[in-house]
Amino acid sequence: MRRTIVSFAFTFALAISSLMTFSAPAAAYGSDAVWQIGFSFNCDDPVACAVSPTNPFGPGGFWGWIELDSTTHPGTAGSAEIVVTGCDHFRPTAPHGGADHFTLDGTWWTANNTLFVSTTAFGGVFFTAPAASGHYSLRPAPAINMELQVAHIPGR
């Protein structure tokens, strides 16, 4: 029994070391990434964020990440990878809320110090952000919060 345990431990250690030897390092961005945008929009006020013709979701939030790629560097236009997750509550009809997740491809460009992100899934401009690295916060009312992190990737 002891010999089996030692043999298993040795085999496991050998397998782990071979993974470390032959695995390529993980890269969060492709070589064409020039901007990254992280965002969080939350509305926890059941009155201000009630389901309406202009707000089909109700209270909840959306959180996401957008990578802007360009084959010319530093780049003023290119392709976009968009990943968004959301959760909403208190819809008047079934299923009365829930979680959503989607990944989209789009395009981006800059104009007047603003980044514009467009996707055909939303029929045009989907998102805008300042074309300057930084953290931006907006709290238009109690229980409503918007956070935006814009990062220009240096050297690209």
Radius of gyration, CA atoms, in whole angstroms:
22 Å
Distance between the termini: 57 Å
Main β-sheet, spatial strand arrangement? 6-5-4-3-2-1-8-7
Sheet with the most strands? 8 strands, antiparallel
Shape call = elongated
Unreliable runs, pLDDT <50, ≥5 residues?
Answer: 1-28
Can you walk me through this structure?
By secondary structure, the chain is mainly beta. The protein has one domain (33-152). The chain has one helix and eight strands, in the order αββββββββ. The chain has an eight-stranded antiparallel sheet, with no helix packed on it. It is elongated.
Notable traits:
single chain; 156 residues; mainly beta; 8-stranded antiparallel β-sheet; 51% strand; elongated; disordered N terminus
Give a brief description:
The protein has 156 residues and is mainly beta. It is built from one helix and eight strands, in the order H-E-E-E-E-E-E-E-E.
List the helices and strands and how they pair.
Layout: H1 2-22, E1 33-43, E2 60-69, E3 77-89, E4 97-111, E5 114-119, E6 124-130, E7 134-141, E8 144-152
Antiparallel strand pairs: 1-2, 1-8, 2-3, 3-4, 4-5, 5-6, 7-8
